Amino acid sequence: MVMMAIVWVIVGGGAAGRAAARVLAAYCHPEEVLLLDREATVCPRLHIPQYLEEGKYPRPAPDGGVRRVRAEVVSLEPSARRLVLSDGRKVSYGRLLLATGAVPALPPLPGARLRGVISLWEWEEARRLAVFLRRGAVRAVVVGAGPLGVRAALMLTRMGCQVAVVEALPQVLPGLVSEDMAAVVRDRLRAVGVEVHCAEEVQGFEGDGRLRAVRTSRRRMPCQLAVLATGTRPDAMLAAEAGLEVRQGVVVNEHLRSSDPNVWAAGDVAEVPDAVLGRPRCYALWSAAAEQGRIAALNMAGIPRRYPPAVPFNSLDVAGLRVVSVGYPCLVGIDRVHLRSRSGGVALLSFREQTLVGAALLGTVDGGGTLYHLIRYRRLVPLPRAGQDLQRWLAGVWVPWLRRAGLREPGWTAVS
Fold it and tell me: What is the pLDDT at residue 374?
């Protein structure tokens, strides 16, 4: 067996892995950095529906300025600082970053392996959907009404399919927006031809080798295509089998170091502190993964950097209706205030005492970035009045803080 000895090894070529590769290439000798990736292309998961609709092909996975090998890692031996690849080769490392991402949390339902039942997680699998679509308009059922499910439903509708969305929870975009906001989103989906069925569970898939129908708790839905958008789980099996501490994902400290001093973790697989919940969790977010990859790589290179507790951030366009969700706008037992936006949208702000813990914007994106920073960095802010202008309130709490810090945010002016 061939043995490769590398100082810095990254497992996974997604957002975290590529960001880490760029940092290590800048601070270390690029020839001493190896990126192991099993995928040939790179594409943010939420962009897959757009790529399919526009007929684009994701760009080849870049190497980040380091040596890149397309290979699958099958085992990790921390005591020997060694990785074993699927072809039998072994790679020894000095310091290792696990950026293995996440995998679809597919429901164990009867018929889930029928032809026509697919997920939109990896591009190579999503190409199967393109094959179905080239055969002409079909009847499709999307399972799950989160951001990916909503995007997939809109894409299929625009491509001529008859589409129904089935969501087990009582509303679309559960946990991201309030019930009233979800009703607006649901109505917008229905207005463009998408059927929406909430509080309805999928119980199985029927067919004779090929999908013929989806069976739910309320009905049988004839279809030729079912798209599973039911969430994800961290791909932490490699770490768990190696004996690293794993709960939901790989447990890391504030420097993204795992229970093994020579192994770091970043991206969807890493369990990082949450600014609002006060406990660690995993984030399946492209931007969070890239930030974690950069910080983990700096720490691996001996440049100490702390990863600040994070919060979720989601943004999508629903047939021209902009939706932004930051933090946890739907937590139980918190104060909620509705505001209006100058651009015609509405906002829901959620507070725990004077700490902003979540926000949802509908029909506007103005202030989304500012709200993210207020939530993530736990700024104490005065509660707004119901119906108050969002931008006026933000200017009143954000601009003074910028001035005290000697900073200025372009485009913001204080409103008297």
Answer: 86
CA dihedral 404, 408, 409, 415 (to 10 degrees): 70
Q: Helix-strand-coil percent breakdown of the chain, rounded to 5?
A: 25, 30, 40
Q: Closest Cα partner for 97 from 274, 267, 305? A: 267
pTM: 0.87
Do residues 358 and 274 make contact, with C-beta atoms less than 8 angstroms apart?
Answer: no
Q: Which tokens is 81 given?
A: 């600082």
User: 162-166 and 139-143 as β-strands: parallel, antiparallel, unpaired?
Assistant: parallel
347 neighbors 341 (Cβ within 8 angstroms): yes
Long-range Cβ contact pairs of 235-238 (< 8 A, separation 24 or more) = 235/100, 235/101, 235/102, 235/103, 235/268, 235/269, 236/100, 236/269, 238/11, 238/73, 238/75, 238/76, 238/98, 238/100
Is residue 415 very low, low, confident or very high in pLDDT (cuts 50, 70, 90)?
Answer: very low
Inter-axis angle of helices 147-158 and 179-191, to 10 degrees? 20
CA distances from 357 to 203, 242, 306, 405 (A): 35, 36, 22, 22
Distance (Å) of CA 223 to CA 46, 48, 395:
24, 22, 50
Q: Please say whether the beta carbons of 276 and 311 come within 8 A.
A: yes
Task: Give residue 41's pLDDT.
Answer: 63
Given a contact cutoff of 8 angstroms between Cβ atoms, the answer to whether 12 and 67 are in contact is: no
For tokens 């005065």, name the residue: 382
> What are the tens digits of pLDDT across the range 134-191?
777 689 999 999 999 999 999 999 888 999 999 999 999 999 999 999 999 999 999 9
Question: How far apart are the C-alpha atoms of 293 and 33, rounded to whole Å?
Answer: 14
Give pLDDT, residue 58. Answer: 62
Half-sphere exposure of 348 (CA within 13 A, CB side): 24
Q: Of the candidates 44, 127, 118, which has an alpha carbon nearest to the alpha carbon of residue 316?
A: 44
